[in-house]
Each structure stands twice: as C-alpha cells, then as structure tokens.
Specification:
Its EC number is 4.4.1.1. The chain is an alpha/beta fold. 38% of the residues lie in helices and 15% in strands. Helix 1 packs antiparallel against helix 2 and helix 2 packs parallel to helix 9.
Length: 346
C-alpha cells in the first residue's frame, strides 16, 4: 500500500454497528461487558479506546511499524521513553535539541540519577566516543529544531545495535512522508503529532511507533499506568488530518523551496536552514522582536519560546542565537507567503 493510501485508510474500517465510513468518536470512559473479561479488548479509555486505536494503527502503518501509541503531547511520548530507564543509566543525545526535550532531560530525569551527554551527532564517530556500559539509550532528533542539523540514523543505528543500546528518533520535522527511521534501524520513532501529522493547529498530541513485541509491552504499561493518553475527539481530529498529510507535505516542500530561493539573496538574511530558520544580519534582540511581530504568517523566536529553557551559553554553541527566527512554511499560496516575508524584512 502506497503512502497516500495508508494515510487515508490504514487502521480504519467501516463501523460494524452503523456502516459509518469515518471512524466514530467513541466518547466513553468505560465499556459494557457481557460478563467479566468479555470486553473485546476495551475496558477503560485511559488505556484503550476504539477511536484512538484506529489512529495508532494508522500512525504505525505510516512509519512502517507494527505498533503505535498515541500520547496527550509529544512530551508525554518522550516522558514514556525516558521511563524505560533506571538510575545510573546514561543517554547520548544531540547538542541541538528541542527545548522541551532538553528541559525534561535536565530538569526532570537527571534528578533521578540518569546522565545525559549532549554532543554533536552530525558525525556518527563522535557518538561512539560516548558509549560505555551504562549507555542504555541514544536519542536522535533529525532534522534538529531549529537549525536543521542532520544525523545519519543508519550509521548511529549500527553503533546502537553493536552495543545493545535502544535507539529512539524524533522524526517530527521530517514526518513519515520524508523519512522512516525504523527502516533505517531505529527501535522507536517519536512524533509531536501536533505538527505535520495533525496539520491543522487544533490538536496537541504525541506518538511512539515501534516493532519489538517486548518493548511495546513495556511502553504500553507505562502509557496505561501513567495515563498521558489522548481523548477520542483529538484522536478523531488527527485521523482526519492524516488524510491530507501526503498532499500537505508536497505543498510544504515546494513552498519551502521557493522561500529558500528568495531568502538566499536577501540582504537582511545572514543565513538560513531548511525548516526554515533564518538569522537576521546585524539585528539585535529588539530589532528581531520588531521583525517577528511584523509577520502575518506563523513565526517562532526560539530563544524566547521553544528553546527558552536552554542556557544561553549552550544555545549559542549550536547557533540558536538571539537574532534567529524560525518560519513555519505553510500550504498557503506561496506568493502570499513571499509578500509577507518582503514586508516583514523591509
């Protein structure tokens, strides 16, 4: 089954009670049982819900995985993976990392005796230098947020497998339309579903996709026991959003290409990366705020927003500087996006 067909149909069947083509919103907390244990797999909606199960099966199919688990946020999904670890374990991860991931690693899980190594992962040989007997997880974000560094998933996967280390990949920025980490050797794929997968800025959600049966059992236990699971309405909205994922990603890519070509020669842009992030030539923090406030389309100032929890000294090392702005290139007519850029940078 090709990607677009999976996005529309995977995990979903007509409702047997009504024939409804769209998966119903099963807005229920509990389920009737003919007799104790006769529950058709559904007992309590914190752990299992038919709408969410359809979504999880669709998400798994998009990442060429056997299992999917949906969470109430991307951080909820990340939290579940970290709970596979124990005091004394070590994690190798990138030095250019989403601020929320950095915050949960350093402010939450480091307090429980887990050690994190934040390193340059663009050279896989550098990863090997930090592997030791206590290394239990390698956490990759690629492309990174917001500077769009690329990590060789397949090369790092070989290191992980040689040393019996779990490899998890945050695939949010590429989406399964452009990259499938499990095919490249990852054990777990994480998504902030809030972004490309949901696609309509109306849902906050996260997800994990994986193949291993025992690992799935461990993560499902955490998922059910800790309860960071989404409700049926959010699950329905993402199922709806996924039906246009392949169409939206084509438009994002084409619009992004044209905007990159425009920015390449703009006198006020010092450099840019592919999400797209730009650094403003000669702009101080106040001027950066002014330009950011001039945009009509969606823009992010990482230093004061997504990466505000990362110390300035660490941000500066990887280029997340005060005059960096991240553009979220949408699927509007590209001429309108270009006009917005021109007026904001004028």
């Amino acid at each position: 089954m090709k990607f677009g067909t999976k996005a529309i149909h995977a995990g979903q069947e007509p409702d047997p009670s009504t024939g409804a083509i769209m998966t119903p919103i099963f807005q229920t907390s509990t389920y009737w049982q003919k007799s104790p244990g006769d529950n058709k797999g559904f007992e309590y909606s914190r752990g299992t819900n038919p709408t969410r199960k359809a979504l999880e099966d669709c998400l798994a199919a998009l990442e060429n995985a056997k299992y999917g688990l949906a969470f109430s946020s991307g951080m909820g999904a990340t939290d579940a993976v970290m709970k596979l670890l124990a005091p004394g374990d070590e994690v190798i991860t990138g030095n250019d990392l989403y601020g929320g991931s950095y915050r949960i690693f350093t402010k939450i899980f480091s307090n429980y005796g887990i050690k994190f190594h934040f390193i340059d992962m663009t050279d896989s040989e550098n990863v090997q230098k930090y592997v030791n007997d206590q290394t239990k997880l390698i956490w990759i974000e690629t492309p990174t947020n917001p500077t769009m560094q690329i990590v060789d998933i397949e090369a790092v996967s070989k290191i992980a497998k040689q040393n019996n280390i779990l490899l998890a990949v945050d695939n949010t920025f590429a989406s399964p339309y452009l990259q499938n980490p499990i095919d490249l050797g990852a054990d777990i794929v994480m998504h902030s579903v809030t972004k490309y997968l949901g696609g309509h800025s109306d849902v906050v959600m996260g997800a994990l996709m994986l193949n291993d049966d025992e690992l799935y059992k461990r993560l499902w236990f955490i998922y059910n026991a800790c309860g960071a699971t989404p409700g049926p309405m959010d699950s329905f909205l993402v199922l709806r959003g996924l039906k246009t994922l392949h169409l939206r990603m084509k438009a994002h890519c084409e619009n992004g290409r044209q905007i990159a070509e425009f920015l390449k020669t703009h006198p006020k842009v010092e450099k840019f990366t592919g999400m797209i992030s730009i650094t403003l030539k000669g702009a101080d923090l106040q001027e950066t705020y002014r330009i950011a406030s001039s945009f009509k389309s969606l823009i992010n100032h990482p230093v004061s927003m997504t990466h505000g929890s990362i110390p300035k000294s660490e941000r500066d090392k990887v280029g997340v500087v005060d005059n960096l702005l991240r553009l979220s290139v949408g699927v509007e007519d590209v001429e309108d996006l270009l006009e917005d850029l021109k007026q904001a940078l004028s």
